Amino acid sequence: MTLPRVVDGLQFEEGQIFESPDDFKQALAWFAMANKFTFEFLNNSRSYYRIVCTVEECKWKLTAGCEGNSDLVRVKKFNNVHCHTAQDVANYKPTVRSKYIGKMIKEKIAETPGYLPVQIRKDFEASMSVHMSYHQAWCAKEWAKSSITGEPKDSFKFVPWMCNRLIDCIPGTRANYILSDDGRFKQLFVAYGCSITGFMTACRPILFIDACHLTGHYRGVLMSVCGLDANNGLYPLAYSFASTENDENWLWFLQELKHIIGDRTIVLMTDRNHSLLLGIIQIFGGECNAWCLRHLKENFSRFMVRKGIKNKRRETGLKMLNDIAYARDSRMYYHYLVMMHNFNPQLADWVKDNDSRHWANALFPLKRWDWMYSNPSESFNSWIGPLRECNIFQFMKDHVLKLTSFLMKKKVTLEKSKTPVGPRIEEKIRDNQERSTGCGYKN
Ligand SMILES: [Zn+2]
Protein backbone atom coordinates (compact mmCIF):
# COMPACT_ATOMS: atom_id res chain seq x y z
CA MET A 1 0.00 0.00 0.00
CA THR A 2 1.14 3.54 -0.60
CA LEU A 3 -0.12 6.63 1.11
CA PRO A 4 -1.74 9.33 -0.98
CA ARG A 5 0.91 11.85 -1.97
CA VAL A 6 -1.05 14.73 -0.45
CA VAL A 7 2.05 16.87 -0.57
CA ASP A 8 2.55 16.52 -4.32
CA GLY A 9 2.06 19.92 -5.87
CA LEU A 10 1.36 21.49 -2.47
CA GLN A 11 2.50 25.11 -2.68
CA PHE A 12 2.00 28.38 -0.89
CA GLU A 13 1.81 31.74 -2.58
CA GLU A 14 0.75 35.23 -1.67
CA GLY A 15 -3.02 35.73 -2.10
CA GLN A 16 -3.74 32.01 -1.83
CA ILE A 17 -7.01 31.15 -0.03
CA PHE A 18 -7.66 28.20 2.31
CA GLU A 19 -11.17 27.16 3.28
CA SER A 20 -10.57 27.19 7.03
CA PRO A 21 -7.84 27.80 9.63
CA ASP A 22 -7.70 24.04 10.07
CA ASP A 23 -7.09 23.41 6.36
CA PHE A 24 -4.45 26.11 6.35
CA LYS A 25 -2.57 24.67 9.35
CA GLN A 26 -2.76 21.16 7.98
CA ALA A 27 -1.39 22.23 4.58
CA LEU A 28 1.39 24.07 6.38
CA ALA A 29 2.29 20.96 8.43
CA TRP A 30 2.48 18.79 5.31
CA PHE A 31 4.41 21.46 3.41
CA ALA A 32 7.00 21.66 6.21
CA MET A 33 7.31 17.89 6.40
CA ALA A 34 7.73 17.58 2.63
CA ASN A 35 10.38 20.34 2.64
CA LYS A 36 12.07 19.08 5.82
CA PHE A 37 11.88 22.08 8.11
CA THR A 38 10.01 22.90 11.31
CA PHE A 39 8.15 26.11 12.02
CA GLU A 40 6.65 28.04 14.88
CA PHE A 41 3.81 30.49 15.23
CA LEU A 42 4.86 33.94 16.46
CA ASN A 43 1.23 35.01 16.17
CA ASN A 44 -1.58 32.49 16.15
CA SER A 45 -4.94 34.25 16.06
CA ARG A 46 -7.60 33.96 13.38
CA SER A 47 -6.99 37.48 12.16
CA TYR A 48 -3.19 37.17 12.08
CA TYR A 49 -0.93 34.16 11.67
CA ARG A 50 2.80 34.86 11.67
CA ILE A 51 4.95 31.80 11.11
CA VAL A 52 8.73 31.52 10.96
CA CYS A 53 11.28 28.73 10.47
CA THR A 54 12.74 27.46 13.78
CA VAL A 55 16.31 27.70 12.49
CA GLU A 56 17.93 30.82 13.89
CA GLU A 57 18.70 33.54 11.33
CA CYS A 58 16.65 31.74 8.65
CA LYS A 59 14.48 34.20 6.75
CA TRP A 60 11.65 31.82 5.79
CA LYS A 61 8.41 33.50 6.82
CA LEU A 62 4.70 33.36 6.16
CA THR A 63 1.88 35.62 7.27
CA ALA A 64 -1.81 35.00 6.79
CA GLY A 65 -5.18 35.75 8.35
CA CYS A 66 -8.92 35.20 8.10
CA GLU A 67 -10.88 37.32 5.64
CA GLY A 68 -13.13 39.58 7.76
CA ASN A 69 -15.51 37.45 9.83
CA SER A 70 -15.29 34.46 7.47
CA ASP A 71 -13.37 31.21 7.92
CA LEU A 72 -11.38 31.78 4.73
CA VAL A 73 -7.66 32.20 5.35
CA ARG A 74 -5.64 34.27 2.91
CA VAL A 75 -1.84 34.11 2.63
CA LYS A 76 -0.56 37.66 2.94
CA LYS A 77 3.23 37.48 2.72
CA PHE A 78 5.40 34.52 1.89
CA ASN A 79 9.18 34.27 1.74
CA ASN A 80 10.05 30.70 0.77
CA VAL A 81 13.84 30.94 1.01
CA HIS A 82 15.68 29.05 3.76
CA CYS A 83 19.18 29.70 4.96
CA HIS A 84 20.33 26.46 6.71
CA THR A 85 23.78 25.15 7.52
CA ALA A 86 24.66 21.45 7.01
CA GLN A 87 24.26 21.01 10.77
CA ASP A 88 20.75 22.51 10.71
CA VAL A 89 19.83 19.99 8.01
CA ALA A 90 21.31 17.14 10.06
CA ASN A 91 19.47 18.28 13.21
CA TYR A 92 16.09 18.34 11.49
CA LYS A 93 13.43 16.47 13.47
CA PRO A 94 9.93 16.55 11.99
CA THR A 95 6.85 17.33 14.04
CA VAL A 96 4.53 14.37 13.42
CA ARG A 97 1.08 15.24 14.71
CA SER A 98 -1.43 12.43 14.76
CA LYS A 99 -4.20 14.69 13.58
CA TYR A 100 -2.39 15.68 10.39
CA ILE A 101 -1.30 12.13 9.61
CA GLY A 102 -4.81 10.95 10.51
CA LYS A 103 -6.25 13.24 7.85
CA MET A 104 -3.78 11.83 5.36
CA ILE A 105 -4.86 8.22 6.00
CA LYS A 106 -8.55 8.82 6.69
CA GLU A 107 -9.82 7.61 3.30
CA LYS A 108 -7.63 4.56 3.43
CA ILE A 109 -8.91 3.64 6.91
CA ALA A 110 -12.51 4.05 5.73
CA GLU A 111 -11.83 1.63 2.85
CA THR A 112 -9.58 -0.75 4.82
CA PRO A 113 -10.29 -0.73 8.59
CA GLY A 114 -7.64 -3.46 9.03
CA TYR A 115 -4.85 -1.06 7.93
CA LEU A 116 -2.42 -1.73 10.80
CA PRO A 117 -0.28 0.90 12.57
CA VAL A 118 2.83 -1.10 11.61
CA GLN A 119 1.90 -0.75 7.94
CA ILE A 120 0.89 2.90 8.32
CA ARG A 121 4.31 3.60 9.77
CA LYS A 122 6.07 1.77 6.94
CA ASP A 123 4.03 3.49 4.23
CA PHE A 124 4.45 6.87 5.85
CA GLU A 125 8.21 6.50 6.09
CA ALA A 126 8.40 5.31 2.48
CA SER A 127 6.29 8.13 1.11
CA MET A 128 7.56 11.03 3.26
CA SER A 129 11.07 9.83 4.20
CA VAL A 130 10.22 10.85 7.76
CA HIS A 131 10.52 8.58 10.81
CA MET A 132 7.36 7.76 12.70
CA SER A 133 6.97 5.76 15.92
CA TYR A 134 4.44 2.94 16.37
CA HIS A 135 2.60 5.07 18.92
CA GLN A 136 2.32 7.98 16.49
CA ALA A 137 0.94 5.61 13.83
CA TRP A 138 -1.55 4.18 16.33
CA CYS A 139 -2.67 7.68 17.41
CA ALA A 140 -3.03 8.74 13.76
CA LYS A 141 -5.23 5.73 13.10
CA GLU A 142 -7.34 6.44 16.20
CA TRP A 143 -7.75 10.02 15.04
CA ALA A 144 -8.82 8.86 11.56
CA LYS A 145 -11.29 6.36 13.03
CA SER A 146 -12.81 8.99 15.33
CA SER A 147 -13.22 11.40 12.46
CA ILE A 148 -15.05 8.70 10.46
CA THR A 149 -17.24 7.22 13.19
CA GLY A 150 -17.24 9.89 15.91
CA GLU A 151 -15.53 9.92 19.29
CA PRO A 152 -15.38 6.47 20.97
CA LYS A 153 -17.03 7.83 24.13
CA ASP A 154 -19.93 9.21 22.06
CA SER A 155 -20.52 5.84 20.42
CA PHE A 156 -21.90 4.44 23.71
CA LYS A 157 -24.80 6.87 23.44
CA PHE A 158 -26.07 4.94 20.41
CA VAL A 159 -26.17 1.57 22.19
CA PRO A 160 -29.83 1.83 23.40
CA TRP A 161 -31.00 2.98 19.96
CA MET A 162 -29.04 0.25 18.21
CA CYS A 163 -30.41 -2.42 20.60
CA ASN A 164 -33.97 -1.32 19.82
CA ARG A 165 -33.27 -1.34 16.08
CA LEU A 166 -31.90 -4.90 16.27
CA ILE A 167 -34.91 -6.08 18.32
CA ASP A 168 -37.31 -4.43 15.83
CA CYS A 169 -35.58 -5.71 12.71
CA ILE A 170 -34.69 -9.28 13.67
CA PRO A 171 -37.56 -11.05 15.48
CA GLY A 172 -36.57 -12.91 18.61
CA THR A 173 -33.37 -10.90 19.13
CA ARG A 174 -32.03 -10.38 22.63
CA ALA A 175 -30.07 -7.12 22.77
CA ASN A 176 -29.63 -5.95 26.31
CA TYR A 177 -27.31 -3.49 28.07
CA ILE A 178 -26.66 -2.25 31.56
CA LEU A 179 -25.53 1.13 32.81
CA SER A 180 -23.79 2.04 36.04
CA ASP A 181 -25.62 4.08 38.71
CA ASP A 182 -24.22 7.30 37.24
CA GLY A 183 -25.53 6.40 33.77
CA ARG A 184 -22.26 5.18 32.23
CA PHE A 185 -22.16 2.21 29.89
CA LYS A 186 -21.22 -1.07 31.60
CA GLN A 187 -22.05 -4.05 29.45
CA LEU A 188 -23.87 -5.14 26.30
CA PHE A 189 -25.18 -8.54 25.23
CA VAL A 190 -26.46 -9.32 21.72
CA ALA A 191 -27.87 -12.53 20.24
CA TYR A 192 -29.86 -12.24 17.01
CA GLY A 193 -33.19 -14.05 16.77
CA CYS A 194 -32.08 -15.95 13.65
CA SER A 195 -28.92 -17.21 15.42
CA ILE A 196 -30.92 -18.32 18.47
CA THR A 197 -33.54 -20.17 16.40
CA GLY A 198 -30.86 -21.83 14.26
CA PHE A 199 -28.93 -22.98 17.29
CA MET A 200 -31.91 -24.20 19.31
CA THR A 201 -33.52 -26.10 16.45
CA ALA A 202 -30.60 -27.54 14.53
CA CYS A 203 -27.23 -27.38 16.31
CA ARG A 204 -25.68 -29.91 18.66
CA PRO A 205 -26.02 -28.80 22.30
CA ILE A 206 -22.42 -27.67 22.76
CA LEU A 207 -21.22 -24.08 23.06
CA PHE A 208 -17.78 -22.52 23.26
CA ILE A 209 -17.34 -19.49 25.53
CA ASP A 210 -14.34 -17.20 25.47
CA ALA A 211 -13.22 -13.57 25.71
CA CYS A 212 -10.66 -11.63 23.71
CA HIS A 213 -9.27 -8.13 24.12
CA LEU A 214 -10.57 -5.23 22.12
CA THR A 215 -7.73 -3.37 20.48
CA GLY A 216 -9.31 0.03 19.80
CA HIS A 217 -9.66 3.03 22.04
CA TYR A 218 -12.19 1.33 24.37
CA ARG A 219 -9.73 -1.40 25.45
CA GLY A 220 -12.37 -3.65 26.98
CA VAL A 221 -13.07 -7.30 26.30
CA LEU A 222 -15.33 -9.00 23.81
CA MET A 223 -17.02 -12.04 25.31
CA SER A 224 -18.41 -14.52 22.85
CA VAL A 225 -20.32 -17.75 22.67
CA CYS A 226 -20.50 -19.89 19.55
CA GLY A 227 -21.62 -23.34 18.50
CA LEU A 228 -21.02 -25.66 15.55
CA ASP A 229 -22.95 -25.96 12.31
CA ALA A 230 -23.74 -29.26 10.55
CA ASN A 231 -20.31 -29.16 8.93
CA ASN A 232 -18.36 -28.58 12.17
CA GLY A 233 -18.00 -24.95 11.10
CA LEU A 234 -18.26 -21.88 13.31
CA TYR A 235 -21.76 -20.83 14.38
CA PRO A 236 -21.65 -17.51 16.29
CA LEU A 237 -24.49 -17.28 18.81
CA ALA A 238 -23.93 -14.17 20.91
CA TYR A 239 -21.40 -11.52 21.94
CA SER A 240 -20.92 -9.12 24.79
CA PHE A 241 -18.89 -5.95 25.35
CA ALA A 242 -17.52 -5.54 28.88
CA SER A 243 -14.74 -3.64 30.59
CA THR A 244 -12.86 -6.71 31.83
CA GLU A 245 -13.19 -10.42 32.68
CA ASN A 246 -14.37 -10.29 36.28
CA ASP A 247 -16.97 -12.17 38.37
CA GLU A 248 -19.68 -9.58 37.85
CA ASN A 249 -19.28 -9.28 34.06
CA TRP A 250 -19.12 -13.03 33.43
CA LEU A 251 -22.13 -13.56 35.69
CA TRP A 252 -24.25 -11.06 33.77
CA PHE A 253 -23.12 -12.56 30.46
CA LEU A 254 -24.11 -16.06 31.62
CA GLN A 255 -27.46 -14.86 32.94
CA GLU A 256 -28.16 -13.38 29.51
CA LEU A 257 -27.09 -16.63 27.86
CA LYS A 258 -29.41 -18.54 30.19
CA HIS A 259 -32.30 -16.39 28.94
CA ILE A 260 -31.77 -17.56 25.39
CA ILE A 261 -31.09 -21.26 25.97
CA GLY A 262 -33.54 -21.81 28.84
CA ASP A 263 -33.44 -25.12 30.68
CA ARG A 264 -31.95 -27.14 27.84
CA THR A 265 -28.81 -29.01 28.90
CA ILE A 266 -25.92 -27.72 26.87
CA VAL A 267 -22.22 -28.50 27.19
CA LEU A 268 -20.26 -25.30 27.79
CA MET A 269 -16.62 -25.53 26.72
CA THR A 270 -14.36 -22.95 28.36
CA ASP A 271 -10.84 -22.21 29.48
CA ARG A 272 -10.29 -22.10 33.26
CA ASN A 273 -10.88 -18.42 33.91
CA HIS A 274 -11.84 -18.35 37.58
CA SER A 275 -14.70 -15.84 37.22
CA LEU A 276 -16.16 -17.71 34.26
CA LEU A 277 -16.11 -21.06 36.08
CA LEU A 278 -17.74 -19.54 39.17
CA GLY A 279 -20.49 -18.02 37.03
CA ILE A 280 -21.17 -21.31 35.23
CA ILE A 281 -21.57 -23.16 38.53
CA GLN A 282 -23.98 -20.49 39.72
CA ILE A 283 -26.13 -20.28 36.59
CA PHE A 284 -25.89 -23.68 34.89
CA GLY A 285 -24.42 -25.98 37.55
CA GLY A 286 -20.89 -27.28 37.04
CA GLU A 287 -21.74 -30.58 35.36
CA CYS A 288 -22.09 -29.19 31.83
CA ASN A 289 -18.74 -27.41 31.96
CA ALA A 290 -16.03 -28.97 29.75
CA TRP A 291 -12.53 -27.54 29.96
CA CYS A 292 -10.34 -26.95 26.95
CA LEU A 293 -7.40 -29.33 26.97
CA ARG A 294 -4.96 -26.73 25.67
CA HIS A 295 -5.06 -24.61 28.82
CA LEU A 296 -4.93 -27.71 30.95
CA LYS A 297 -1.84 -29.02 29.15
CA GLU A 298 -0.12 -25.65 29.62
CA ASN A 299 -0.76 -25.82 33.38
CA PHE A 300 0.36 -29.44 33.52
CA SER A 301 3.49 -28.58 31.57
CA ARG A 302 4.36 -25.77 34.00
CA PHE A 303 3.77 -28.17 36.91
CA MET A 304 6.25 -30.65 35.39
CA VAL A 305 8.86 -27.89 34.95
CA ARG A 306 8.43 -26.97 38.63
CA LYS A 307 8.96 -30.61 39.58
CA GLY A 308 12.12 -30.80 37.44
CA ILE A 309 10.58 -33.07 34.78
CA LYS A 310 12.14 -31.95 31.52
CA ASN A 311 12.83 -32.83 27.87
CA LYS A 312 11.92 -36.40 26.89
CA ARG A 313 10.34 -37.15 30.27
CA ARG A 314 8.16 -34.06 29.92
CA GLU A 315 7.02 -35.20 26.48
CA THR A 316 6.16 -38.61 27.93
CA GLY A 317 4.17 -36.93 30.71
CA LEU A 318 2.20 -34.87 28.17
CA LYS A 319 1.47 -37.94 26.06
CA MET A 320 0.18 -39.72 29.15
CA LEU A 321 -2.10 -36.79 29.97
CA ASN A 322 -3.41 -36.96 26.41
CA ASP A 323 -4.14 -40.68 26.75
CA ILE A 324 -5.99 -40.05 30.01
CA ALA A 325 -8.03 -37.22 28.47
CA TYR A 326 -8.99 -39.15 25.32
CA ALA A 327 -9.63 -42.56 27.02
CA ARG A 328 -12.99 -43.86 25.78
CA ASP A 329 -14.20 -45.45 29.01
CA SER A 330 -13.36 -45.43 32.71
CA ARG A 331 -11.50 -48.76 32.44
CA MET A 332 -9.03 -47.23 29.98
CA TYR A 333 -8.96 -44.00 31.96
CA TYR A 334 -7.78 -45.82 35.13
CA HIS A 335 -5.42 -47.96 33.08
CA TYR A 336 -3.63 -44.82 31.81
CA LEU A 337 -3.79 -43.17 35.24
CA VAL A 338 -2.02 -46.19 36.80
CA MET A 339 0.61 -45.99 34.04
CA MET A 340 1.15 -42.34 34.92
CA HIS A 341 1.36 -43.16 38.61
CA ASN A 342 4.08 -45.73 37.87
CA PHE A 343 5.93 -43.14 35.79
CA ASN A 344 5.67 -40.41 38.44
CA PRO A 345 3.13 -40.45 41.31
CA GLN A 346 3.15 -36.63 41.56
CA LEU A 347 1.74 -36.37 38.04
CA ALA A 348 -1.09 -38.77 38.80
CA ASP A 349 -1.84 -36.70 41.92
CA TRP A 350 -1.98 -33.59 39.75
CA VAL A 351 -4.64 -35.26 37.59
CA LYS A 352 -6.67 -36.18 40.69
CA ASP A 353 -6.37 -32.62 42.04
CA ASN A 354 -7.46 -31.03 38.77
CA ASP A 355 -11.09 -32.09 38.42
CA SER A 356 -10.61 -34.54 35.56
CA ARG A 357 -14.39 -35.01 35.22
CA HIS A 358 -14.34 -31.62 33.41
CA TRP A 359 -11.79 -32.61 30.79
CA ALA A 360 -11.36 -36.39 30.59
CA ASN A 361 -13.65 -37.91 27.97
CA ALA A 362 -14.41 -41.01 30.02
CA LEU A 363 -15.55 -39.12 33.13
CA PHE A 364 -17.38 -36.23 31.51
CA PRO A 365 -21.07 -36.93 32.13
CA LEU A 366 -22.47 -35.41 28.89
CA LYS A 367 -21.90 -35.82 25.16
CA ARG A 368 -19.19 -33.57 23.76
CA TRP A 369 -18.69 -35.04 20.27
CA ASP A 370 -14.96 -35.48 20.86
CA TRP A 371 -14.42 -31.73 21.16
CA MET A 372 -11.44 -31.47 23.50
CA TYR A 373 -10.29 -27.99 22.48
CA SER A 374 -12.05 -24.64 22.21
CA ASN A 375 -10.91 -24.12 18.61
CA PRO A 376 -14.26 -22.62 17.53
CA SER A 377 -13.68 -19.75 20.00
CA GLU A 378 -10.34 -19.08 18.38
CA SER A 379 -11.98 -19.22 14.94
CA PHE A 380 -14.49 -16.66 16.21
CA ASN A 381 -11.74 -14.33 17.42
CA SER A 382 -10.00 -14.43 14.06
CA TRP A 383 -13.32 -14.21 12.15
CA ILE A 384 -14.07 -10.98 14.06
CA GLY A 385 -10.61 -9.70 13.07
CA PRO A 386 -10.50 -5.93 12.45
CA LEU A 387 -13.88 -5.39 14.14
CA ARG A 388 -12.02 -5.71 17.44
CA GLU A 389 -10.66 -2.23 17.01
CA CYS A 390 -13.98 -0.57 16.16
CA ASN A 391 -15.93 1.54 18.59
CA ILE A 392 -19.06 -0.12 19.99
CA PHE A 393 -21.52 1.47 17.57
CA GLN A 394 -19.43 0.58 14.54
CA PHE A 395 -19.00 -2.94 15.90
CA MET A 396 -22.74 -3.47 16.36
CA LYS A 397 -23.45 -2.14 12.89
CA ASP A 398 -20.72 -4.13 11.12
CA HIS A 399 -21.23 -7.33 13.13
CA VAL A 400 -24.83 -7.75 12.03
CA LEU A 401 -23.80 -7.31 8.36
CA LYS A 402 -20.85 -9.64 8.71
CA LEU A 403 -22.91 -12.34 10.41
CA THR A 404 -25.83 -12.25 7.98
CA SER A 405 -23.54 -12.58 4.96
CA PHE A 406 -21.60 -15.34 6.77
CA LEU A 407 -24.81 -17.31 7.47
CA MET A 408 -26.04 -16.75 3.92
CA LYS A 409 -22.82 -18.24 2.49
CA LYS A 410 -23.17 -21.24 4.81
CA LYS A 411 -26.74 -21.78 3.72
CA VAL A 412 -25.77 -21.79 0.05
CA THR A 413 -22.88 -24.25 0.68
CA LEU A 414 -24.88 -26.61 2.88
CA GLU A 415 -27.84 -26.65 0.52
CA LYS A 416 -25.60 -28.39 -2.00
CA SER A 417 -25.00 -31.22 0.48
CA LYS A 418 -27.16 -34.29 -0.21
CA THR A 419 -27.15 -35.49 3.42
CA PRO A 420 -28.21 -33.65 6.60
CA VAL A 421 -24.53 -33.15 7.50
CA GLY A 422 -21.85 -31.17 5.68
CA PRO A 423 -18.95 -32.53 3.56
CA ARG A 424 -16.47 -32.51 6.51
CA ILE A 425 -18.70 -34.74 8.64
CA GLU A 426 -19.53 -36.97 5.67
CA GLU A 427 -15.84 -37.57 5.16
CA LYS A 428 -15.40 -38.40 8.85
CA ILE A 429 -18.26 -40.90 8.74
CA ARG A 430 -16.84 -42.54 5.59
CA ASP A 431 -13.42 -42.73 7.20
CA ASN A 432 -14.84 -44.34 10.37
CA GLN A 433 -16.84 -46.85 8.29
CA GLU A 434 -13.73 -47.86 6.37
CA ARG A 435 -11.64 -48.24 9.52
CA SER A 436 -14.31 -50.34 11.22
CA THR A 437 -14.72 -52.78 8.33
CA GLY A 438 -14.25 -56.30 9.71
CA CYS A 439 -14.56 -55.22 13.34
CA GLY A 440 -16.87 -57.29 15.47
CA TYR A 441 -18.60 -56.51 18.75
CA LYS A 442 -17.79 -58.40 21.93
CA ASN A 443 -19.84 -57.95 25.07
ZN1 LIG B 1 14.49 27.74 7.48
Automatic annotation (TrEMBL):
Give the domain of life.
Eukaryota
Q: Please name the InterPro entries in this protein's record.
A: MULE_transposase_dom, Transposase_MuDR
State the protein's name.
Answer: MULE transposase domain-containing protein
* Pfam families reported in the protein's UniProt record: DBD_Tnp_Mut, MULE
Q: Which organism is it from?
A: Davidia involucrata
Its lineage reads: Eukaryota, Viridiplantae, Streptophyta, Embryophyta, Tracheophyta
UniProt domain MULE transposase: residue ranges: 207-299
Taking every annotated instance into account, which residue ranges of this chain make up the domain Transposase MuDR plant? 11-64
